[in-house]
Amino acid sequence: MKRSYGCILFPAAGILFCLWYVCSATSDVVYSDYIRLINSYLPDVWNPEKFFVPDILTRIPVNFLSRGINVEVFHFSVRFDQILGILGLGLAALVIGLYVRKERLGFGFLLAVMALMFSLNKWEMLTNGSGWTHFLAFACFYYYYLVLDRVWQSGKKGIRPGQRTEKPWDRPALLLLPFIITLGIAGQYCAIYSGVMIVVYGFLGIWNTFIDTDGSPRAGRGADKSQRYWLWLLCILIPLGLYIVSNAFTVEEHAGATELSFTEAIRQNPKFFPAFFIKSFAAMFLGGETMESRLHLPNRVILLIGLLVMGGYLLGLWLNVKYQIYERTLFPLLLILSGGCSHILILISRWIFLNQENYGMSSRYAVQFQMGIIGIVLTIAIAWGMEGHRRPRSEDTGRALGRRAAKRLKKHSIAAVTGVVFIGIILCGNVATTADELIKAPHRKERYEEKVQAALNYKNYSDEDLENIFEYRKGPEKIRQALEILETNRWNVYGRMDIKGREGGDT
Q1: Is it the case that residue 402 has pLDDT exceeding 80?
Q2: pLDDT on residue 497
Q3: Segment 415-463, tens digit of pLDDT
Q4: CA 427 to CA 89: how far, in whole Å?
Q5: What's 436's DSSP letter?
Q6: What's the rounded Cα separation, in Å, for the pair 1 and 266?
Q7: Are 277 and 307 in contact (CB under 8 A)?
Q8: Cα angle at 171 between 170 and 176, to 5 degrees?
Q9: Buried b vs exposed e over 271-309: b needs ≥16 C-beta within 10 Å?
Q10: What pLDDT digit, counting tens, does each position of 6-29 carry?
Q11: 261 falls in which pLDDT band (50, 70, 90)?
Q12: Rounded CA Rg of the chain
């Protein structure tokens, strides 16, 4: 199979696989965040007063359109949102596939990347359709990085003509996309994308202002090339600033959050923060549930796994520097930085759950952590290809390189082999997690069917049972209110003829 076909067929196959998994593991019934969404926006889903609010940009505006379509056409179906999320994941995989084709990486690396992209370590995001826009947001991040990479490669020396694939719309897209992504799609995840691009554009702007292409100083003379980086940086800062202003009007509620200050928390439990941070990396090898409930791994083993994955990050950064991969392509480095930034942001925003040291291992964060792993794999793939080109083709050629060059090649070979071994280890962990989730799928389906029955008979359930079944801890009265809205309008489980028939028509 050629790479040109694989970059399309693999995402399509991944989409079908995830659709099959979601249908096998879930039922079309509301729970968790959907309770809040129903009470906030339904039944008058098109009401402009619910759209034009001070914190509108934190509500992810694209959700208003999809929610309206969902209500009008699909009678508020969770399955509709789940499908949108899976399509967003497939779109992200397509972008990765296009990059692999552009860089002419090997089929094996393409297969490895796609296996990681569609791993079920992100089962929680796949099954909870309310977060479908997060998949779309990360697909947009991937695409923005790809566009920047194409512009970065334009006109560079040493780049094959086939790699100079800058499109006519790429430079205008770098001006427009930040506004669409940050203000319309990404929500709180814009911090990852914006933070990385602020650092990258700031560095490139300074570098091209004062440093010449050969590394010599420009004696303060600004370079015309740097102007575009400052302009693109401005296009990142403006929407980010607007989002921050809108976010100032948001009232957040965190069930189970501590009231301690950051310094007090460090003083009382200094080991919590490094353990939380390291364990969040471990989840990229094995899913949190797989490590805890299935394998019952001890705490020290989980920490060792986290350190192993962190070592992969260091390897990816080292390969970028050693082979100067960033000169050839920025895309993998941007993904590594985004993944690392995600781990830091989760620690900063979720340390408030002090009694949950394993919170960073949650499946809901796998989508954003995954960026770093994909970046590492792509870096290793490029380094492997470069090392193959540099390897002497004959014994005579090897002698001609000299002892120092031969020693350098040997080190590069060890690094490349180490990288491939790391990919194999990560793949084994992700395959094990996916297999474990497939085994759990029927059990998850049973829990969703329990939610269906509880929704159809919610008036007969106790407060405690409702909170446990619907996984919503902000008041049983809100659960009843949301279900009453659905029942009155014959939406979701209340509008399904098969359920009405099965329940004898009293629903």
Answers
A1: no
A2: 45
A3: 788 889 999 999 999 999 999 999 999 999 999 999 999 999 999 999 9
A4: 18
A5: H
A6: 54
A7: no
A8: 90
A9: ebbebbbbbbbbbbbbbbbbbeebeebeeeebbebbebb
A10: 788 999 999 999 999 999 999 999
A11: low
A12: 25
For residue 253, the SS3 value is: coil
Asked if 454 and 463 touch (Cβ cutoff 8 Å), the reply is no
Give yes or no for a cis peptide into 442 (omega within 30° of 0): no
- Is 431:115 a contact under the CB 8 Å cutoff? yes
State the pLDDT at residue 158. Answer: 56
- Write the DSSP string, 119-175: -GGGHHHHH-GGGHHHHHHHHHHHHHHHHHHHHHHTT-TT--GGG----TTHHHHHH
Any idea what DSSP says for residue 492? G
Unique residue bearing structure tokens 């793939």:
381
CB of 247 closer than 8 Å to CB of 55: yes
What is the Cα–Cα distance from 329 to 383, expressed in whole angstroms?
Answer: 12
Give yes or no for residue 289 having a pLDDT over 90.
no
Using CA atoms, how far residue 383 sits from 18, 318, 420, in Å, is: 31, 11, 10
At 251 the three-state DSSP class reads coil
Report the largest interatomic distance among the alpha carbons of the chain, rounded to a whole angstrom: 87
What b-and-e string marks burial along 417-444, b requiring 16 or more CB atoms within 10 Å of the CB? eebbebbeebbebbebbbebbeebbeeb
What number of H helices and E strands is found in the chain? 21, 0
Helix, strand, coil abundance in the chain, percent, nearest 5: 75, 0, 20
Given a cut of 80, whether residue 254 has pLDDT beyond it is no
Paired tokens of 222: 């600004």
Contact 255, 246 (CB under 8 A): no
In the numeric block, which tokens belong to residue 101?
A: 């084709």
Q: Which residue has the tokens 């310094």?
A: 263
Query: What torsion do the CA atoms of 366, 370, 371, 377 make, to the nearest 10 degrees?
Result: 180
Q: How many CB atoms lie within 10 A of CB 170?
A: 16
Q: Which amino acid is at 258?
A: T
Backbone angles phi, psi at 298, to 5 degrees: -70, 160
Amino acid at 316: G
* 210-224, 289-303, 324-338: least confidently modelled range: 210-224
206 against 82, higher pLDDT: 82
- Determine contact, residues 478/53, Cβ cutoff 8 Å: no
Q: What is the mean pLDDT of residues 137-147?
A: 97
> Contact 205/236 with Cβ under 8 angstroms?
no
| DSSP string over 267-333 | HH-TTHHHHHHHHHHHTTTS-HHIIIIIS---HHHHHHHHHHHHHHHHHHHHHHHHTTHHHH-SHHH
**SS3 label, residue 75:** coil
C-alpha separations of 71 from 327, 340, 456, 489 in Å: 49, 38, 19, 10
> How many residues are given for the chain?
507
